[in-house]
Prior knowledge:
It comes from Desulfallas thermosapovorans DSM 6562. This is DNA primase. GO terms for molecular function: DNA binding; DNA-directed RNA polymerase activity; zinc ion binding. Keywords: Metal-binding, Zinc, Zinc-finger. By secondary structure, the chain is α+β, with helices and mostly antiparallel strands. The chain has 2 domains: about 15-95, Zinc finger, CHC2-typedomain (DNA Primase, Chain A, Alpha-Beta Complex), CATH 3.90.580; about 110-200. It has 8 helices and 5 strands. The protein has helices at about 15, 20-30, 75-80, 85-95, 110-155, 165-180, 185-195, 195-200, and strands at about 35, 40-45, 55, 65, 70. Helix 6 crosses helix 7. The longest helix has about 50 residues, at about 110-155. The protein starts with 12 loop residues before the first helix and ends with a helix. It binds zinc ion. Zinc ion binds next to loops.
Amino acid sequence: xxxxxxxxxxxxxxxxxxxxxxxxxxxxxxxxxxxxxxxxxxxxxxxxxxxxxxxxxxxxxxxxxxxxxxxxxxxxxxxxxxxxxxxxxxxxxxxxxxxxxxxxxxxxxxxxxxxxxxxxxxxxxxxxxxxxxxxxxxxxxxxxxxxxxxxxxxxxxxxxxxxxxxxxxxxxxxxxxxxxxxxxxxxxxxxxxxxxxxxxxxx
Length: 203
Ligand SMILES: [Zn+2]
């Protein structure tokens, strides 16, 4: 009936049960015979014997008896009428009005753990960011080298000075490294990034 999904996590059960209209609570448990008087409700006090009604319920969810001087909210009223502790009264209202109470107070240990997890997540994001920057840089340099080498090979420029087989072998390896960096496999990406040749461009 009363959805608790929009309630912040820190909200406790006493705040949750305030969602329930106090008039509904009083009627549900037959606590008093309420009569509307303007925006207020009035009844004979359920906490002390009286003939003339001096028990008032206000639109803000509060109540006060001008006969015996008692006052409070719906939890206080249910607690006093049924002789319960406030927490027991709040639980009863929550249960009977279908309020989900799944947010127990957060322990110190849970807070510490959540904070630690947040720090670790931030570190991971930072490492990932640095990793991606290095990967971009390595791809840039490797692509440039391979392009330049291929252009030179096409033009026949290096033939006189370099061992062609060695150059082709090197280009093959650089293309392999590019393939590793472009792959979705983190192990292959790391393998390429930690290659000594790649490392020297990243320093
Ligand atoms: Zn009273």
